[in-house]
Amino acid sequence: MEVYKIKNIAGHLAKGFLSNPLTPVIAIAILLLGFLSLEIMPREEDPQIEVSGGSIIVAIPGATPSEITNVIIKPLERRIREIKGVEHVYGTAMNNVGMINVQYFIGQNREASNLKLYDKVMQNMDQLPKGTMMPLVKPFDIDIDIPILTVAFYKAGNAEIDTIRLYKIIRELQQSINALDDVAKTTLKGVKRPQFNILVDLHKLAAYHISLGQVTQAVKSISTNAPEIDTTTTDGKLIVFGVQNALDDVEDLNELIIAQYRGSPIYLKNIAKVEYNYDIQNYDSASITYQESMHGEKHVSSHDKEESGPILFRDAGDQITMTIAKLKGTNAVNIAQRAIEEITKSKEELLKNGVGFIVTRNYGDRANEAVNELVHHLLITILIIALILVPFLGWRESLVVTIAVPMILATTLFIALMTDQTINRITLFAFLLSLGLIVDDAIIVIENIHRRLHLKESEELEFDEIIIQATDEIGPSTNIATIAIMLTMIPMGFVGGMMGQFMKPIPLNVPVALGVSLFVAYVFAPYLARKFIKFESHAKPVKEEN
Question: What is the pTM of this model?
């Protein structure tokens, strides 16, 4: 009988691994790597989209919104639009201050774009009117502004702790959480920050012939940050905010010299009232209600009423909410867990000071639940595929295909780990999407082996020869069909904007899974077929020579 000549890579792979003792070792290694990748890969509920930009804040004391628009917003907007990589520019004018928000194109280098924005603003300072305060250029990143953990701190029970003391305690805890690895940002909301509040009498300013700008410059000279000003009060007074960490007490600030009038110094106390309080701009505060049992146990509640029985619903009163965000590409589950552990370590100290806390949102738990749920659905889908194949191919052939599927997914997961991807709902959706495609190659190989076993010309062939020929025979058509499907995924990789970033795991992982499916179909499917499918009933035994 003429010796069969292998024509393509499918046959060569099948022949090379069919009787190789390393084949089962490689298979086990692939499954282990896939399992480890599933455990090691950073988990998040959705892909973290990198959208960067910056805010420019420019203050002119005493200027109206119309003046701010004409002399600040419009000139700077024209200059900022000249920066390469800027997609949108939004300007907002208020009393005394203008704000310009800049959004970069997705994919632009964050650091380089922020530097260009700062340079552009500084280069055009000479075009801004006299009396303009130094602009504040503040970068922002949407990807790190989305919190993975939200914790609310409140006055526990009847604890006698003022709002300023509450803020200082939580501020110290915030610093320890900031020091944790992979924590990008922490913020405090609903806080009443301690500071000096200056209430300036506008009538006294007029009497001494002092401008608001003089007051602002004097306060600015001793404050750590430029004060924010609001002139919308109806009682003829003006409030200056943000005088922090410069002086120790009210009396020192009262003695601040603002100007001279007829040879005599005019002190701040002559034109304003100074008080040590908290940031009175922060009018809004969240409301927390917790359940308190007769035994002192507390539980979060969304109700604001008493319930019959031993459970009472109490208002937590003043509260501070801490939000924690992670760096892009890091594990939301681990970071949230470490942050909670850090807070829990301070639980006794917090309770000692009369501070309770409630975890109101845990993105890490949600991410873990979402990933576990999709993995569960993935396993169910594989089982369904196996059951569908049984009536058409037989249970042995179906078993071979079923074993091949986790090997494909394991290899794809490992490649995703090596390319710094995270496992999230979109990544797992890509696996689910490709599941019906990746089984095709193994099915084609097994089905052709099954077909060749029943051909008359195969009766004189050995088992290995039948498998190699059957695999080699379907190689060209299977390669072309798989590559064609892979190419259909490529256009999705060129989708721009936020949607492109969000759906990026699909064009990254589906073609990889399809490519891996070819390798598994040509290497492991023939090997498994040789182990599980009975050939003896179809092949003619080889006669021994005397």
Answer: 0.64
